[in-house]
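Title: Comparing notes on inverse folding

I've been comparing how different people in this forum approach sequence design from structure. To keep things fair, I'm posting one structure and asking everyone to reply with a full sequence. Here's the target:
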């Protein structure tokens, strides 16, 4: 994603400089001739028509090919090891962990881990400066493992929401009655923030997303601690 962004930005810089040069040259020529620059007798030029049709087409083709490849790569899910469902509500997020099993009497039984994440109140943020971020911190984190294929299922309970974490390159709508999915392979550790990016109601700006990415060993310890508390 970052490489594609840099490539497209390079094209934009080239186009912007070229257009700026043409406009500057036109204005300079007009002023140098005392506002009375004689109009050209040229009404049509085949070569110019071909140039300004072919070159933009080539540029769009150079942008489209890696874009389609990236979209295909993002949509491809290869045997996800963990499934997490995010459900948007007015105005908080519910999370459910799937693909988790507990060994009971030598048998593996599926278990479901679910919880809600609400905005951290301002009074808590003020008393916890340096650890909480206003309008971004939540009372609980969505904890995910590093370098593991994760399938994220996104839906909504009431109105349209959008699960958006810019650091992950994810911005996917949650629609009531529909289930959207996206694949994640997280390669950086730390705490990442996001927000709902659909205008979902009066408290739209108060349903943030906090994701804690841990090494796989620490993630397994976290799961063990969570289930022991339950």
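Reply #1:
Here's my take.
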């Amino acid at each position: 994603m970052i490489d594609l962004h840099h490539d497209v930005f390079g094209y934009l810089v080239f186009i912007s400089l070229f257009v700026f040069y043409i406009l500057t040259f036109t204005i300079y020529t007009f002023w140098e001739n005392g506002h009375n620059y004689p109009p050209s007798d040229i009404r049509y030029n085949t070569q110019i028509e071909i140039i300004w049709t072919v070159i933009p087409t080539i540029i769009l083709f150079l942008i489209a090919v890696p874009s389609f490849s990236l979209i295909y790569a993002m949509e491809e899910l290869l045997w996800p090891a963990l499934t997490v469902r995010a459900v948007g509500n007015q105005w908080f997020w519910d999370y459910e962990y799937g693909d988790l099993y507990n060994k009971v009497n030598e048998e593996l039984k599926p278990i479901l881990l679910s919880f809600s994440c609400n905005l951290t109140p301002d009074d808590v943020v003020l008393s916890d400066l340096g650890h909480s971020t206003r309008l971004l911190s939540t009372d609980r984190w969505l904890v995910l493992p590093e370098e593991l294929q994760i399938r994220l299922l996104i839906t909504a309970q009431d109105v349209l929401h959008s699960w958006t974490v810019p650091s992950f390159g994810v911005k996917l709508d949650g629609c009531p009655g529909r289930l959207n999915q996206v694949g994640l392979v997280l390669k950086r550790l730390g705490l990442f923030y996001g927000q709902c990016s659909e205008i979902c109601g009066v408290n739209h700006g108060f349903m943030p997303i906090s994701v804690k990415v841990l090494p796989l060993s620490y993630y397994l310890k976290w799961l063990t601690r969570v289930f022991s508390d339950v």
